């Protein structure tokens, strides 16, 4: 009897051991299956984010020039009918949800922003930092960390290069300069910027007045008074820059040529102002923030510029 009881006990222990092993195996398989399911779901969401962002970019960015031209026409019509100038929207924001993914988009005119490359080559690094502080404000300015790819050209060298390339004045003012800043990582400490402003999506808002991708001069017709004053301040005294911005604000139908002629005291100042300011836009950008519930966001920044030959050139960055 004792032998049978011992055998029964051994059998029971063996059964329990097998059950424990089976439960452990099943739990492990369940965890693996769950991980694979979550990974597959995450991969599907990331694919939706990427394909959705690419589709939105293909549709919106090529139409940006037309969209902002229409906005400018509407602003001009309002001014003619009311006698009051309405501020030009340098950025157009919107959102759309597709398949559980929300795409927040910001379409912008890059030539309506202060061109940091022009500022840097016209005034040097230290003055560029000062200008950024004036335009951005003290909080965002603390995250400025300039890492220029080239040394600054002096204004005299810029003019010499332009004169050597063409006798046409318009060509001289628009001669392309080396790009010292080619991405936001060469302008800001991005981690510090997010920490200072309390958001990892701070960059689209901070870059509303500044650009590394403008075509050259700031589009006077679409820029803010702050940006106009900063651009003019690269050539004129602070008082002169404020006076130029105020004159344009008081009479926004004034042409750039007349405005510059009124303020420039010398031919050198006139040419430099024509380099810093313009009346056209050929560079446009698109921020896309693709987010999903319980998933990370995918943020991209795309810039399109149109050459004189009508060729569209795109750049894209991921953040």
List the topology elements.
Layout: H1 2-60, H2 64-82, E1 91-98, E2 101-109, E3 114-115, H3 116-123, H4 125-136, H5 138-141, H6 155-165, H7 169-174, H8 190-197, H9 203-206, E4 210-211, E5 218-219, H10 225-232, H11 238-250, H12 256-263, H13 267-276, E6 277-278, E7 283-292, E8 298-306, E9 312-318
Parallel strand pairs: 3-4, 5-6
Antiparallel strand pairs: 1-2, 2-7, 7-8, 8-9
Protein name: General secretion pathway protein K
Organism: Stieleria neptunia
Descriptive notes:
The chain has one domain. The strands form three sheets. A five-stranded antiparallel beta sheet has the order 1-2-7-8-9, covered by helices on one side. A two-stranded parallel ribbon has the order 3-4. Strands 5-6 form a two-stranded parallel sheet. 33% of the residues are buried. The radius of gyration is 29 Å and the shape is elongated. It has helices spanning 2-60, 64-82, 116-123, 125-136, 138-141, 155-165, 169-174, 190-197, 203-206, 225-232, 238-250, 256-263, 267-276, and strands at 91-98, 101-109, 114-115, 210-211, 218-219, 277-278, 283-292, 298-306, 312-318. The protein is α/β, with parallel strands linked by helices and 319 residues long. The chain contains 13 helices and nine strands. This is General secretion pathway protein K.
Q: Distance between the terminal alpha carbons, to the nearest Å?
A: 76 Å
Beta strands, count: 9
Number of helical elements = 13
Order of helices and strands: HHEEEHHHHHHHEEHHHHEEEE
Q: Please indicate the count of domains.
A: 1
């Amino acid at each position: 009897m004792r032998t049978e009881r011992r055998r029964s006990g051994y059998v029971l222990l063996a059964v329990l051991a097998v059950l424990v092993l089976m439960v452990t195996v099943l739990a492990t398989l369940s965890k693996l299956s769950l991980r694979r399911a979550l990974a597959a779901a995450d991969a599907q969401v990331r694919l939706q984010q990427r394909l959705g962002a690419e589709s939105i970019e293909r549709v919106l960015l090529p139409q940006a020039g037309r969209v902002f031209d229409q906005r400018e026409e509407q602003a001009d019509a309002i001014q003619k009918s009311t006698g009051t100038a309405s501020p030009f929207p340098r950025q157009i924001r919107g959102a759309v949800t597709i398949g559980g993914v929300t795409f927040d988009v910001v379409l912008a005119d890059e030539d309506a922003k202060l061109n940091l490359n022009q500022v840097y080559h016209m005034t040097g690094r230290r003055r560029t930092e000062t200008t950024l502080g004036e335009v951005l404000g003290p909080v965002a300015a603390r995250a400025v960390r300039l890492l220029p790819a080239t040394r600054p050209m002096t204004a005299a060298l810029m003019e010499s290069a332009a004169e050597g390339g063409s006798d046409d004045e318009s060509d001289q003012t628009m001669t392309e300069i080396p790009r010292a800043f080619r991405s936001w990582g060469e302008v800001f400490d991005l981690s510090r910027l997010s920490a200072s402003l309390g958001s990892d999506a701070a960059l689209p808002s901070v870059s509303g007045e500044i650009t590394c991708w403008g075509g050259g001069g700031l589009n006077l017709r679409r820029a803010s008074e702050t940006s106009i004053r900063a651009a003019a301040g690269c050539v004129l005294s602070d008082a002169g820059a404020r006076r130029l911005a105020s004159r344009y604000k008081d009479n926004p139908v004034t042409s750039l040529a007349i405005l510059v002629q009124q303020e420039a005291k010398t031919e050198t100042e006139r040419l430099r102002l024509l380099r810093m300011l313009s009346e056209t836009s050929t560079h446009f950008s698109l921020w896309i923030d693709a987010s999903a519930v319980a998933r990370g966001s995918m943020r991209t920044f795309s810039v399109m510029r149109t050459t004189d030959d009508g060729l569209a050139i795109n750049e894209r960055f991921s953040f």
